[in-house]
């Protein structure tokens, strides 16, 4: 794995050098040029259902639809919070294996480890010197995370969006898949590209957002919160490596309410609505069709129906991870 990572790092380095060296550097792509798509994911170990439906599934689709696609396991971003080095190393391996099992194909896209390409941090420093402190302090995620922690955040957390911009601009990416919560960070990326071009000449394409309908999967035990690996309640999160028995148990214990009918009313029936949303996402059916097909079914039975749909969705991935 180490040799493979070094080989991929060297390939990425040669790719970057070809893009950026001297006066013959690759020009800014024109409107009719091939899209170059970039996206990253933190190495949080084995992905859960929310990770898959929120990002990985769209990654697989994008690599099938476009010719120039790059995906990175962004381990430098993960150390903005304390990490155990041994656990982080294993998490990188686990995430790599999981992405491959989920359908990321090295023949169709480039998958690499961020920290193996030193130019990410080099460009990040250059861009950091171009952005004003108040701009970073006013970003929603910075304010939300520091408020949640009830203490001053680290400089790494503050400059996280600048490293994110470097990740994208380094490869002269033209498009980036993002969810609604990343729109503000993409505006920073675009502004930095424009500022650099204005000062030093047309060099970086100004990347555009690909707004994806990233499904937001809620905790099975608390539908007011997102599904998370760090949830202390082990029944709250479904991992792609869970056995069929574990998946059934978790859905049986999923929080609903005292009304047995299956409906989709997120504001008033969060638990049942979360199950409906999951069912729709893993089957590809519209929410309305899921509700129609579930007419007359009580929630206890419906939980098992959703569990079976998730088991079927994860079956090919589980075969790949054996």
Any overview of this molecule?
The protein has 322 residues and is mainly α. It folds into two domains: 2-211, HUPs (Rossmann fold), CATH 3.40.50.620; 244-321, Tyrosyl-Transfer RNA Synthetase (Orthogonal Bundle). Helices cover 52% and strands 7% of the residues. The protein is built from 14 helices and five strands. The chain has helices at 2-20, 49-65, 75-78, 85-102, 119-128, 133-137, 140-149, 155-158, 160-170, 183-200, 244-252, 270-283, 287-293, 299-321; strands at residues 36-41, 68-73, 110-113, 175-178, 208-211. The strands form two sheets. Strands 1-2-3 form a three-stranded parallel β-sheet. Strands 4-5 form a two-stranded parallel sheet. β4, α10 (183-200) and β5 form a beta-alpha-beta unit. Residues 22-32 have low confidence and may be disordered.
Give me a quick take on this structure.
Helix content is 52%, strand content 7%. The chain contains 14 helices and five strands. The model is unreliable at 22-32 (pLDDT under 50).
Key phrases:
Rossmann fold; mainly alpha; 322 residues; Tyrosyl-Transfer RNA Synthetase; 52% helix
């Amino acid at each position: 794995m180490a040799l493979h990572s070094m080989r991929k790092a060297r390939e990425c380095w040669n790719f970057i050098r070809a893009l950026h060296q001297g006066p013959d550097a690759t020009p800014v792509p024109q409107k009719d040029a091939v899209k170059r798509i970039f996206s990253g994911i933190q190495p949080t170990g084995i992905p859960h259902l929310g990770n898959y439906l929120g990002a990985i599934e769209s990654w697989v689709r994008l690599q099938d639809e476009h010719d120039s696609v790059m995906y990175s396991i962004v381990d430098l971003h993960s150390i903005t919070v304390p990490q155990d080095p041994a656990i982080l190393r294993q998490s990188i391996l686990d995430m790599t294996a999981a992405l491959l099992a989920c359908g990321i194909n090295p023949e169709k896209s480039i998958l690499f480890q961020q920290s193996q390409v030193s130019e990410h941090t080099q460009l990040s420093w250059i861009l950091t010197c171009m952005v004003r402190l108040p701009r970073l302090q006013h970003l929603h995620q910075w304010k939300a995370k520091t408020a949640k922690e009830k203490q001053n955040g680290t400089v790494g957390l503050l400059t996280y969006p600048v490293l994110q911009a470097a990740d994208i601009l380094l490869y002269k990416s033209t498009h980036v898949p993002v969810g609604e919560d990343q729109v503000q960070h993409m505006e920073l990326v675009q502004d930095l590209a424009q500022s650099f071009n204005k000062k030093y000449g047309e060099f970086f394409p100004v990347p555009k957002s690909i707004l994806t309908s990233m499904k937001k999967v809620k905790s099975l035990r608390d539908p007011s919160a997102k599904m998370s690996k760090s949830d202390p309640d082990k029944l709250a999160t479904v991992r792609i490596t869970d056995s069929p028995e574990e998946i059934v148990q978790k859905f049986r214990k999923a929080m609903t309410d005292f009304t047995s009918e299956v409906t989709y009313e997120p504001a008033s029936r969060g638990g049942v609505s979360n199950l409906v949303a999951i069912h729709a996402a893993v089957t590809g059916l519209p929410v309305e069709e899921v509700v129609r097909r579930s007419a007359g079914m009580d929630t206890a039975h419906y939980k098992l129906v959703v569990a079976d749909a998730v088991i079927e969705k994860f079956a090919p991935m589980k075969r790949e991870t054996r």
